[in-house]
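Reopening this one. Same input as before:
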Amino acid sequence: MRYVCELCGYVYNPDKGDPENQIDAGTDFEDLPDTWCCPLCGATKDDFEESSDEEYDTTE
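Same output, byte for byte:
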């Protein structure tokens, strides 16, 4: 699964993590710290919605 920010469209891909914010590849969305926010717009985890992988190109 991937998670999409409802405010700006940023896609969190657990396979890639968020290296710029010290989130390792393989970190599930549920395991992100509560203080984590969207790296593009600053939205909280509550502003993300779950989306299936097939909605996104696997080369992202």
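So the earlier flakiness isn't reproducible anymore. For the record, Strands lie at 2-5, 11-12, 48-51.
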